[in-house]
From TrEMBL:
It is a single-pass membrane protein. This is Synaptotagmin-7. Homodimer. Can also form heterodimers with SYT6, SYT9 and SYT10. Interacts with calmodulin (CALM1, CALM2 or CALM3). Interacts with CD63; required for localization to lysosomes. Interacts with APP. Belongs to the synaptotagmin family. Residues 54-107 are annotated as: Disordered. Its main location: membrane. PANTHER family: SYNAPTOTAGMIN (PTHR10024), SYNAPTOTAGMIN-7 (PTHR10024:SF344). It comes from Phascolarctos cinereus (Koala).
Length: 404
């Protein structure tokens, strides 16, 4: 029997069209709710991943090694000897290791904004590192005594604590140089303690045949350095103590705070240079402007200066450029610019070494002084580097004191 499709459902029953529309609306709402949940989850995950990419950038460590030789000559006929650790005491060689999270280079260079956030003034990583160089350089423990019967001065280097990190790995490879000032030609050195911010040396040094009258005229000078195989050792800090102020009749033990290292050979002069970073071209322009009050290296009381500029990456020399030589001039004006290609992701492991040289025709050229520019150099150099990053495409000029 034929039934009317409109009235087949009975009185008050919804039509097929109404049911179809209701079903579509219900499905749409369900899909919308699911998509909203997925979007919120994605935003949280992506946001967390982007934040981590800025906070967990790791840098590779560079290999270290060292071959030791001990000085045995001493002015005034004395003899310096490095003895073995005192019996009954076990030398320590613990490594103060810090595990750093790492991420791929692509995370670092997602945008220039990421790099600027990480290297610009005010970032936590750089402020903490710079703070170590300016304030907390650690401290060193040592002992000194004199044996009147054997005319021997004994210096024992025991340990250091809370040394600042000088390497990209977040640690240092410290060792100690020992001098009896004013003589700096003859020095003794401890062993290198690899990757250790709290090293134990327990090494004893004997200055034999050294008359007491001359001992009290000397200053014991200790310099702590971070060993670098392929570049200049980084100074960490120094301690000096006049021996005429020490009771040498018995071994005296001292804890001394390390102070910033100074150049004991006098002023070497200053160099004015500018840095200009171009992120779009991945380059840095180094402009050697002028120098003043350079140290005289020639017999005539003058120098023939020129400037070498080395680009270093991961302790490897990449490229070298140099200026012309200025004859007999202690205040030369160079005004020469050099362009180096440096991708953004390599900035944190790049160092620019600037060396002022004295040209000699008949002998080897003399080094007047050096400057190391990077994000981990001394306070003045770090400031210049960070100012360059913070002001892209603008030349940033600054005077630098030349160092040995």
């Amino acid at each position: 029997m034929y039934r009317d499709p409109v009235t087949a459902g009975g009185p008050g029953a919804p039509s097929r069209d109404v049911l179809l529309v209701s079903a579509i609306i219900t499905i749409s709402l369900s899909v919308t709710i699911v998509l909203c949940g997925i979007c919120q989850w994605c935003q949280r995950k992506l946001g967390k991943r982007y934040k981590n990419s800025l906070e967990t950038v790791g840098t590779p460590d560079s290999g270290r090694g060292r071959s030791e030789k001990k000085a045995i000559k001493l002015p005034a006929g004395g003899k310096a000897v490095n003895t073995a650790p005192v019996p009954g005491q076990t030398p320590h060689d613990e490594s103060d290791r810090r595990t750093e999270p790492r991420s791929s280079v692509s995370d670092l260079v997602n945008s220039l904004t990421s790099e600027m956030l990480m290297l610009s003034p005010g970032s936590e990583d750089d402020e903490a590192h710079e703070g170590c160089s300016q304030e907390n350089l650690g401290r060193i423990q040592f002992s000194v005594g004199y044996n009147f019967q054997e005319s021997t001065l004994t210096v024992k280097i025991m340990k250091a604590q809370e040394l600042p990190a000088k390497d990209f790995s977040g640690t240092s490879d410290p060792f100690v140089k020992i001098y009896l000032l004013p003589d700096k030609k003859h020095k003794l050195e401890t062993k290198v303690k690899r990757k250790n911010l709290n090293p134990h040396w327990n090494e004893t040094f004997l200055f034999e045949g050294f008359p007491y009258e001359k001992v009290v005229q000397r200053v014991l000078y200790l310099q702590v350095l971070d060993y670098d195989r392929f570049s200049r050792n980084d100074p960490i800090g120094e301690v000096s103590i006049p021996l005429n102020k020490v009771d040498l009749t018995q071994m005296q033990t001292f804890w001394k705070e390390l102070k910033p290292c100074s150049d004991g050979s006098g002023s070497r002069g200053e160099l004015l240079l500018s840095l200009c970073y171009n992120p779009s071209a991945n380059s840095i322009i180094v402009n050697i402007i002028k120098a003043r009050n350079l140290k005289a290296m020639d017999i005539g009381g003058t120098s023939d200066p020129y400037v070498k500029v080395w680009l270093m990456y991961k302790d490897k020399r990449v490229e070298k450029k140099k200026t012309v030589t200025m004859k007999r001039n202690l205040n030369p004006v160079f005004n020469e610019s050099f362009i180096f290609d440096i991708p953004t992701e390599k900035l944190r492991e790049t160092t620019i070494i600037i060396t002022v040289m004295d040209k000699d025709k008949l002998s080897r050229n003399d080094v007047i002084g050096k400057i190391y520019l990077s994000w981990k150099s001394g306070p003045g150099e770090v400031k210049h580097w960070k100012d360059m990053i913070a002001r892209p495409r603008q030349p940033v000029a600054q005077w630098h004191q030349l160092k040995a």
